[in-house]
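Form 7-S
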Amino acid sequence: MLVNPIKWPNGARCAAAITFDMDSDSILYSDHPERASTMVGTASWLRYDQVAVPRILRLYQKHNIKQTFFVPGWTAENYPEVVREIVSEGHEVALHGYLHEKPNTLSREIEGYWFNKSVDAIARVTHQQPLGFRAPSYRFSKHTLGHLLDAGVLYDSSLMSDDVPYLLVDRDSERSLIELPTDWSRDDWPQYTNNSELGYRMPIKSPKAAMDVFMAEFDAAWIHGALWIAVWHPFVSGRLARLMAVDEMIQYMKAKGDVWFAPLCEIARYVQQQVDQGGYTPRRDPLPFHG
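Output:
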């Protein structure tokens, strides 16, 4: 079904990345600044990241895989010890806004202010220059690509226009970067999230029911040679029963064989190398979409 497949390293059938967005309680201070300090119950739910992230790191260590965590700058500043543990285990920390603000609700100047603030925060806490970006709530704006290109970001993983890596191209400058696409079908939010104070009322699925959705997408990616990226949240999928299911999922993937597990920065570097060497000609998607 893929008209433009990419050859993955070492004959792998597909590439897989189990990424986590470590938002913690940044969401409250972005969306509800006037009452965030009074939302103690919801904050405790979000702050489960402090328990979940070390648990996820132990799971990755068990399976000897390295992955990517997208972290708002505010979260990195307020939970630096957790973020530094991610880095010390060899995982990637990438950009996810500063206060989980929604870029497409902001002016170019305000979006740029928060974006640059997030870059500074992540670099200061991790002592590494971030290479990737995911827009909070997937709210990529008409200005976002320009900010990413100006900052020298290698890849984005916010958009959903393909099953394999492609290029986002700025219509005016012809500059481009790599898009590593995902989809809502691989996001844990619709499967598990129910919080009346924040207005989310999805029926909570069992881990088995959620995995039926995630694994149907993985099996298809494996058959057709696609890129499979999960977009999960530690305070959501890091809960006991759900992470047990993730453990079983990884075992299934490894038993199936020929799966390349890698952080997104490594996947993006590989794609760029293939493009530079003429081994892959990705689809080019210009922004804005309609001139």
